[in-house]
Amino acid sequence: MNKKLRYLGIGILIFCGIIFSNLFLQWCQNDLSVDLAVKFAFSWHTEKFFLASLVLLVLFLFLASLAGSLIVGASLYSLFIAMIGFATYMKMTFRQEPVYPDDLTMITQLGFFREVLGTGLFLFVLILMIVVAGLFIYQLYRSFFLAKNKQIMRVIMLCFSTLGLVYISHFNNETNLLRQAYNKTALWIPYSQEMNYYNTGFVGGFLYNLRVDAMEEPDGYSEEAIEDIAEKYQQEVEPGEDDDQPNIVYVMSESFSNPEHLQGLSISGDPLKKYDEVADQTYSGRMLSQNYGGGTANIEFEALTSFSMELLNPQMTTPYTMLVPKMAQLPSLVSLSEDRGYDTTAIHPYDTSMYKRQDVYSTLGFDQFIDQDSMDYTQTIENNPYISDEAAYQQVLDTLKEDQTPQFVHLVTMQTHMPYDGKYDNVNYQVTGDENNRNIEGYLQDISYSSQALQDFTEELAELPERTLVVFWGDHLPGIYSDRLQEQNSTADLHQTEFLMVDSEGGLTHEEGEVTSPFYFAPNLFQQAGLETTPFYELLLDLEKILPAFEPRMYLDNDDQWHEELTLNQNQQEIYNDYRLIQYDILQGEQYSLQNEFFD
């Protein structure tokens, strides 16, 4: 009788623990609102809440059976849930975006987490992780000496829970019973992962973003269709000058944007004065970013490949980590440069493993990757922990001066990465209109230093004997603006950063008010600079004429009007479909277009 009561008590404790952990995830997702978490679980979405609890139970049983101890399994489970919940709260706060399955690959980025959490909290979490890991290893050793009947029960439970997790991981399979159970009450919203998580719960949204193809196959996809597209745009290519091989430098500047574009914010001083002095003399404007407050790798993916995130499945949240490393070949500006005799270099003054850049850059075809450990210049400014833009530009200049071979250099800066408060002892700018003034003021000082470094860089390029073309852009706005300020601005306003293109010989004309998308950078640069394009770039130039900029739920027409839905006439739809077929062919299809020099 006592044993039955004991088992009953353990079962009740496990049940309560699973329910509480599920509520905790909802609490973190809903901005620490107990009311919203409880209503989601027991009023609005009860069925989905208990389906999620079943998933969490399988995870708990796996950890407990693996360790051979309910207590150690509970410790591992609790630590995992606590970390996921906290990460969700932080990501929702700064980026209005939930944690995705692929975000778990960042667990090894200890330097990044130390900077985000602060040294004290980071050390506490690290010590806690070490203690729990040590406890798990110790218990794992002891588990081999369990009694035979307990060992048999443990192995059975481990097998069943492992099979359960594998089955759950195929959530996006149409025949998956768990997915079918969710479908009875779930309202999936493909264009908004944030709303998916709100409507189906953290676990449901998380599962929705597991294994998925890059794109759905478009109607009419075939080898013949790709050949027809290649032939059509091959006829539009105009050759450039044979001996013109200028250096090309891409600079993706972390969080670089103009806060004065935002409604409700008042700034004293002009932090972008030096940037504007450069931009007003050349081809410049604004760039439409897919994300607010983050998503750097997605913007980089678009800029280097000229493929759009808008065409991908919504669950393909980060191609750099979910797609590119698995590919043997991916045409891009990097591969095109190499085919035309360029040396190609990537420079990122940070960790090489962030967003799997080491693997991604290898797939893209970079000859070398210079990171924070291999840079010759690592100076920082005052209390800023990140390598300065000035130092990064000096590394670029040295690369350009190494030999006479034309160079393609891709720089991803870090100086203007968050956090912003406390970086500089003297801040020359003041802000009114937002409760996060200290962060914004620190950010203004950051972009002021960045603007000065950019101007100095372009002036030094003009002294080089070789012609050099530069594309500079900010990847996204910083996630530092209050909800109240964000509500005063449109979605498009919160997704527009600065961009410019510079010719060291002054060959680019200034155009006012241009709004573009990063996948248009390469074809625009080639056209503006008089370089020979490719059939693929000609397709993009035709697409830009009908859609000057677009991302999911943000479409800019030729009348500078923004739309949430894509509306095209028959001729426009044909161009859009051509682009979609080519992108599918490369990212998910048979790569027929690689065989007919479409990207050369």
UniProtKB/TrEMBL annotation:
InterPro entries documented for this protein: Alkaline_phosphatase_core_sf (IPR017850), OpgB/LTA_synthase_biosynth (IPR050448), Sulfatase_N (IPR000917)
Bilayer topology term: Multi-pass membrane protein
Pathway(s) served: Cell wall biogenesis; lipoteichoic acid biosynthesis
Location of the protein in the cell: Cell membrane
TM stretches of this protein: 7-27, 49-67, 74-92, 112-140, 152-170
Signal peptide location: none
Protein name in the entry: Membrane protein
